[in-house]
Write a structure and sequence with these properties.
13 strands, mainly beta, ten-stranded antiparallel beta barrel
Length: 371
């Protein structure tokens, strides 16, 4: 009877939240598409031999911009997902004043995660994953028997710490990151015993919060892309052939984003130590990302009939691309987490998925002390 009653209360509370947010989401869907605020690419090349020309130059430039535009939204949306991290707490209420908690968390927002799947087209279509780290101090204080306030703060730059991030794809040269935010939580239902010690309901919490994130990355690395069939002429008439671009790049990414979000989360207790939780959220975002990308490398082809004396090389090519993007204005999310309760110390892992496309995620791991 108690379990049935609690399930009904949880469903009732979450159902009311989802009904309200669904109406809001439906209205905002009309404006939730990402837009490119600026999209410009300047391309120059020198063919391997004056006899080789590229009649399809305009199409090539369009293809270069198209691939850059593929990456822009991924990067922009990763900022939005990373900005929502910062509150890995596995309890519905930290207690009334003067109860408080403090700790650290490390999180990331990720998009285009299919890039890492073996054999995925995403790893060869010129796109890259968008990954935004977010590491911060987290803190909180109890207000009343039903409410508490959580917060986060982080400021770091390469002048403070050089993480030495370097892979085949990217090397981080310089960076600055600022992350700050707060969340007010109201406990709709408190803790209820269902099966003593074995399984209990930990509470149902509604929250509203705001998050701000600013960052600047300066990057270098290797960039490869396939541009499909482009018309070139090596003296035998214009022929459409597949072109490939292998290059080294340097880039600058600048972003700023502000989010207002609400969540409703149900908490549980298993054996008094494990505290799983799950729920739904809705975030409204306002911000921008600006990307400057300069690549210099070889344009090649493996087309049959292309003169073997050129070893597949068509031209030396350079392009400079400047673009600005906005993230999704609205992100509905599904949240799941697990906290390990070690008395005063809590270790929490949490992930969140964007219900708009089910491919954008964030993940975070936090360690905090609550007393």
């Amino acid at each position: 009877m108690v379990a049935t009653f609690m399930v009904r209360r949880i469903i009732s509370g979450m159902g009311a939240y989802m009904k309200t947010t669904a109406i809001l989401f439906s209205c905002l869907c009309l404006v939730c598409l990402r837009d490119s605020l600026l999209a410009k690419t300047d391309l120059s090349y020198t063919t391997v031999n004056p006899a080789v020309t590229i009649p399809g130059e305009t199409e090539l430039e369009q293809n270069v911009q198209e691939i850059v535009n593929k990456n822009g939204p991924f990067i922009s949306n990763s900022f939005a997902m990373g900005n929502l991290t910062g509150y890995p707490v596995g309890e519905s209420h930290i207690g009334a004043f003067p109860h408080m908690q403090f700790g650290l968390f490390a999180g990331m927002g990720g998009t285009n995660m299919a890039y890492f799947d073996k054999g995925s087209k995403a790893s060869s279509d010129g796109t890259m994953p968008g990954i935004t780290p977010n590491v911060a101090l987290q803190f909180g204080i109890g207000l009343t028997e039903k409410t508490d306030l959580l917060g986060k703060f982080f400021l770091l730059s390469d002048s403070i710490l050089d993480p030495g991030l370097s892979t085949d794809m990217v090397t981080l040269q310089k960076y600055t990151i600022l992350s700050v935010g707060g969340k007010f939580r109201y406990q709709i239902f408190g803790k209820q015993t269902i099966l003593p010690f074995l399984f209990n309901f930990g509470g149902l919490t509604f929250s509203v919060g705001g998050d701000v994130m600013y960052g600047r990355f300066e990057l270098t690395g290797d960039y490869d892309a396939d541009y499909g069939n482009i018309s070139i002429d090596w003296g035998a008439g214009a022929t459409d052939v597949p072109l490939n671009f292998s290059s080294q790049y340097d880039g600058t990414i600048l972003w700023g984003i502000f989010a207002l979000s609400t969540q409703i989360v149900a908490y549980f207790e298993v054996f008094g130590i494990f505290q799983p939780y799950t729920g739904f959220g809705l975030a409204a975002n306002y911000g921008y990302s600006r990307i400057k990308f300069n690549a210099d490398g070889d344009l090649t082809t493996d087309a049959a009939g292309y003169p073997p004396a050129y070893a597949g090389k068509v031209a030396d090519m350079t392009f400079l691309s400047k673009n600005a993007y906005t993230p999704y204005y609205v992100i509905p999310t599904y949240i799941v987490g697990l906290e390990l309760n070690l008395w005063l110390m809590k270790i929490t892992a949490e992930t969140m998925a964007n219900l708009y496309n089910l491919s954008d995620i964030n993940a975070q791991l936090g360690v905090r002390f609550q007393f």
